[in-house]
Write a structure and sequence with these properties.
By secondary structure, the chain is mainly alpha-helical. The protein is built from 13 helices and no strands. Helix content is 75%, strand content 0%. The chain is flat and about 70 Å long.
Amino acid sequence: MTPMSTATTAGPAAIPTPRSRRTGRSWIHTVIGIVLIAIMLFPVYWMLNASLAPAGNSLSTQWLPLNPDFSGYSRAIADQGQNLITSLIVAIGACVLSVAIAAPCAYALAQFKIKGTAVLLFVVLISQMIPGIVIANALYTVYTPLGLINSIPGLILADASQGIPFAILIMRAYLETFETSIVEAARVDGCGHVRAFWSIVLPVSKNSLITAGIFSFLFAWSDFLMALTLTTGESIRPVTLGLYTYIGTNDTDWSAVMSTAVLSSLPAVILMIVAQKYVAAGATGGAVK
């Protein structure tokens, strides 16, 4: 073999190929992604870890729950069980009410030529920017003569007032891309507007319906400000207020606090896991025409 042929054979092996460079970059991206996910999930881990620590122990909580103590969960279930049920009823009620009002509104704004549609959408968008304490104080003034203070219907209406504007925006973005020829075919067959909306539009729009409903549920489930303003006793108390009662000035049982936080996180986590594909499809349904 001549010297020239040897150099020609050894040359390409020393130069990194595009595939090897892509593999190296993918490993770097994977490591960065794992580090970022670990940072974001660390509060969740610490919540679980502290919930298994002995009662009242917060600053000396170990990094690993080697000797788990479940007394915090026992106290959380005993103290907050009714509050969890109250939160569940309020969140489901606000979710149903938000979707029931937002769906026809979004369909009308997306498919019908209504004067002032841009103004209405601007008002809906602005309503999302109003501070919650302003709405809560206004509702307190209205609720007092109506007897809705310390009532579940009052909390459902208050939480729905936050979920409806967001649901309208989400659903309208999807319904703008809806094929009107389907509705027109149903109208030719004799369907009225209400029947076509109920039998044609809603089933086809289930992704956006589920997405709007889930976010409305989460808004109501995590609400603290409305509950604090519109309830004054212990008869109607969502779990967010129940969690707040654990935080005293001189005595705080952090294992009970963290156990309640874990229990109150479960419905939201289960809901997101079950409906993840619908949320992804519904949130991006109107992004591309």
